[in-house]
Design brief:
This protein is α/β, with parallel strands linked by helices. About 35% of the residues lie in helices and about 20% in strands. Helix 5 (about 135-145) crosses helix 6. GO terms for molecular function: hydrolase activity.
């Protein structure tokens, strides 16, 4: 039996939104893929920038979707941010929390006192996503930071996925404060900072971890910063055009349509590929895609062209199959 992509790694770290589920529904094929990994005894972890749920709540959600998980496998930006504050501040310090109840609970569990008003003179502000965060919350945070409080952001995701399309994420809310204050947060905990991935690897003593994500600007860049290989799946935020335009620090080791890519023959999902069966690029008055094969293999081939400076988005089809592949990739 040929070695599969996943067989080269001693830990698989999954992003959640856009990879395993979308809001509260499983991504097609995700439950089956993770179930296969569990049956094979592959160590798993879940690292999420979502600060609106605690680790136990995330594990409960996963179990409810049919994905066996426990809280010890989940690393959230809320929990990691609270832990970072506990290392920086004396026990019992006041922290102004902008975000969901899960973030307040993590702050409280870390031995700190969550507050809501700048007049309570907090030592720090921690800012995470919450669906009810509004202007009044941002105003209190701005006043507290101007008064000398440290500013910690759980993450800076510009958007978050939804069934209706990308919606404003915590990064958009952080940007509002950044504009008002004229400065950046003192600390950003979540991806693309490498701490969530490093924590996951330390927990199980992993020497070679694989990060699986749907975002180039958080999951993949975070993996690069952590010195880990990565698999981009096209089930969430980043699409083929984003991948072709990716700068070097946001380029994955592998790309696949979904989590089924974990079980491809080792090397088949690599980008750029050494070779792609069925597809070829021809030069004749402009680069043309010729041959036949899967759309994802065509994308892998085009990555090689784009990342070497070629105009991959201007490639013309030279076969019916090529036309269909480019259309499926949104590159027609």
């Amino acid at each position: 039996m040929s070695e599969r992509l996943v067989d080269a790694y001693d830990l698989v770290i999954f992003d959640l939104d856009g990879v395993v589920y979308l809001i509260d529904r499983p991504i097609p094929g995700a439950v089956e893929a993770i179930g296969e990994l569990h049956r094979a005894g592959v160590p798993l972890a879940y690292a999420t920038n979502n600060a609106s749920r605690r680790a136990g709540e995330v594990a409960d959600l996963l179990n409810g979707l049919g994905v066996p998980a426990d809280a010890g496998e989940v690393i959230t930006s809320a929990g990691a941010s609270a832990a970072a504050l506990a290392r920086r501040l004396p026990p019992g310090s006041k922290v102004l929390v902008v975000g969901a109840e899960a973030l307040r609970a993590e702050v409280r569990e870390a031995g700190l006192e969550p507050v809501a008003l700048a007049q309570e003179r907090p030592a720090a502000v921690v800012q995470g996503y919450g669906p009810r965060v509004g202007w009044a919350d941002l105003a209190e945070a701005a006043l507290a930071i101007q008064g000398g409080a440290q500013w910690v952001a759980t993450n800076t995701d510009r958007t978050l996925p939804s069934p209706r399309g990308p919606l404003p994420g915590n990064g958009s809310l952080v940007a509002a404060l950044r504009t008002a204050l004229g400065r950046d947060p003192d600390l950003v905990v979540g991806k693309p900072e490498p701490e969530l991935f490093a924590t996951a690897a330390r927990r199980v003593g992993a020497q070679r971890a694989l990060v699986v994500g749907d975002r180039l600007d958080t999951d993949i860049e975070g993996a690069v910063l952590a010195g880990m290989d990565s698999l981009l799946v096209l089930t969430g935020v980043s699409g083929p055009a984003d991948l072709l335009a990716a700068p070097e620090q946001r380029r994955p080791t592998y790309v696949a349509a979904d989590l089924g890519g974990l079980f491809e023959v080792a090397g088949a999902a690599t980008v750029p590929p050494d070779e792609v069966e069925g597809w070829r690029l021809e030069d004749g008055g402009g680069v043309r895609l010729a041959g036949d094969g899967t759309a994802i293999d065509a994308l892998r081939l085009l990555c090689g062209l784009a990342w070497s400076g070629g105009a991959a988005t201007e490639v013309a089809p030279h076969s019916t199959a090529a036309r269909d592949a480019l259309h499926a990739l949104g590159l027609a």
